Amino acid sequence: MSTRPPGALWQSLLKQLWLPVLCVAVLLIATAGSTSFYFPPATDVLATLWRELLHGGLVEDLLFSLRNIALGLGLATVLGVGAGLVIGEVELLRQATGPLLDFARATPTVAFVPVIILTLGIGSGPKIFLIALGSLWPILLNTISGVHGINPAVHETARGYRIPWRLRLLKVVLPGALPQIFAGIRVALSIAVVLMVVSEIYGSPVGLGNFILQSGSGFAVPETWAGTVLIGILGYGLSVLLLAAEYVLLGWYHQRPPRVRRTMSRSEVKT
Amino acid sequence: MAISTTDRRPVAPARKRPARRTRAGTPGRRGLLMLQLSAVAAVLVIWAVLAAAGPVSATALPGPVSVFGRFPELFGTSAYWQAVGDTLNGAVTGFVAAAVIGVPLGLVTGTYAAAEQSSRLLVDVLRSFPVIALLPVFLLVLGSTPTMKTTVVLLACVFPVFLQAQYGARSVTPMISETMDSYRIPRRLRFRKVILPSATPSVMTGLRLAATTSVLVAIGVEVLTTLPGIGHEVVQAQQGGAAAQAYAYIITAGAIGYSINLLSQFAERRLLRWRPPAHTD
User: Fold this and answer.
1) pLDDT greater than 80 at residue B25
2) pTM metric for this prediction
3) Going by C-beta distance under 8 Å and a sequence separation of 6 or more, which residues neighbour residue B90?
4) DSSP at B195
5) For residues B74-93, average pLDDT
6) How many beta-carbon contacts under 8 Å exist across A and B?
7) Is the pLDDT reported for residue B252 higher than 60?
8) What is the per-residue pLDDT for B27?
9) Average per-residue pLDDT in chain A?
10) Which comes out higher in pLDDT, residue A270 or A128?
11) Is pLDDT at B8 greater than 80 in this prediction?
């Protein structure tokens, strides 16, 4: 990367930016004089978003949603990585639980939303539970396959030298599986955002989902769009944050030549 | 081949068996089945104990016996099959539309580096957008119709398909593309014989991911609106106090997702038989 000439950076930036800028411009111009009820001018939407953030209760909604996502995803990560390390290490357990975990992952967590919220209430506890339930599977399955995918030679060497299990876990197994764990967390994040929105639309007095539902059913169109845009920004912002965290934590991994890496670049999408 | 390690579930035991059997202490085919069945049984027992003595009420978590006891009755009703049909209808239509749009677009943008670079940021922003958040907007604009469900499914499925197709087309190594350049292989031939075959595995992965997503989103839409389908039935059953029936529908949804996964894995293996099984590492 550092060997590139200084002009190349600008050039690639320009190449990547022209289309998004064009799209935003087209959007702004096309809706500028819009009198359509459903598609208000984009400037109106942005102004509404700004006003609601500054003076309305939108910041409160945003914080409520963010907290639920953070707690749910955190819980899923702790549980998923913990259980995944155990299942991945014990071959018998891995084989026995295979179909079961596949089934659990294939069950759409959104179907649990009515069951959980109707019985456990509309507070933030059931929502965190739902988010954790949905995010658990990709993290768990990716941890298992990450642990399983560690080169057997490495594994057996660690065993052969009788390296204590704590050290082995921290220095061999966990770092070896970490790239894939992160891939799992990235998938889990998108699921978490979806579950956040669904659970808040289904039953909640606060939150971004509730905000767009309320404004939508009140035919407050600019507010609905503003809330939707904010959720989009939240989704993108969180995934960028996660990538940054991954870059910091996995710097050693990304600096390896691509051939040695086991995972793909950004375009991989995993569910 | 890099695709395999991350996006794939732990490799199906069936494929590994020949290598495994030689190792001492690992079960054979029948032993494995017994092992997996006992794991399922263990989960059912834990579920039963939790439901019977645990801290959760019967409305939140009915026992497995009462849930599975609902199935014979449900199988006889037309409402059950109607709900399954409605959900599948929305999911499949949206999925097919996403494949028709996403695959060609992904292949084209993947072939030309300039197109890929230009669309990168836009696609990144759009794909991290939780489509289900658009639901209130769609309800306003399109109303609560099956078309709306299909549209939401389409939007949710198009990005995995598109990105995997793009990744597949990009996976042609520089050496091969330079060879094609220097032999002046015509564009059509190049597409058919080089780009398409090397992109197919990745495209299949994208389609498999989208298939699972399509059911998930269809059910999500049904939960939140009054559109008929499995999601709606879950809401209705739970509101009517029939928790066991709600769980029966949830398990149905899981079974659909699981079978879609098995089917697409099967299709993938058949379609890509010409290819050495590079996935299985």
Assistant:
1) no
2) 0.79
3) B146, B149, B150, B153, B218, B221, B227, B229
4) I
5) 84
6) 231
7) yes
8) 61
9) 79
10) A128
11) no
Q: Give the C-alpha separation, A74 to B50, whole Å.
A: 25
Q: Which two tokens stand for residue A131?
A: 């988010």
Closest-CA residue to A70 (of A62, A81, A59) = A62
Q: State mean pLDDT over B246-250.
A: 85
Decide if B1 touches A, using CB distance below 8 A: no
User: Distance from B234 to chain A by nearest Cα, in Å?
Assistant: 7
Q: Fill in the DSSP letter of residue B193.
A: I
ipTM (interface predicted TM): 0.75
Amino acid identity of residue A230, one-letter, is L
Interface test with B, best of A17, A61, A103, A110 (most B CBs within 10 A): A110
- Calculate the alpha carbon distances from B103 to A265, B2, B109, B202 in Å: 19, 20, 10, 11
Best mutation site among B9, B43, B126, B230 for testing chain A: the one with the most A CBs within 10 Å? Answer: B9
Task: Please identify which residue in the block is written with the tokens 């590994």.
Answer: B16
Average pLDDT over residues B95-123: 84
Q: Is B238 on the interface with A (CB under 8 A)?
A: yes
* Contact between chains at B35 and A92 (C-beta distance less than 8 A): yes
- Terminal Cα distance for chain B, rounded: 9
Stretch A195-220: mean pLDDT:
80
Please, where are the H alpha helices in chain B?
2-7, 13-21, 29-53, 64-76, 78-111, 113-127, 135-141, 146-170, 174-182, 187-190, 196-224, 230-239, 243-271
Which pLDDT score is estimated for A256? 61
Instruction: With CB atoms and an 8 Å threshold, state whether A115 touches B250.
Output: yes
* pLDDT of B51 strictly over 80: no
- B80, B74 contact by CB (below 8 A): yes
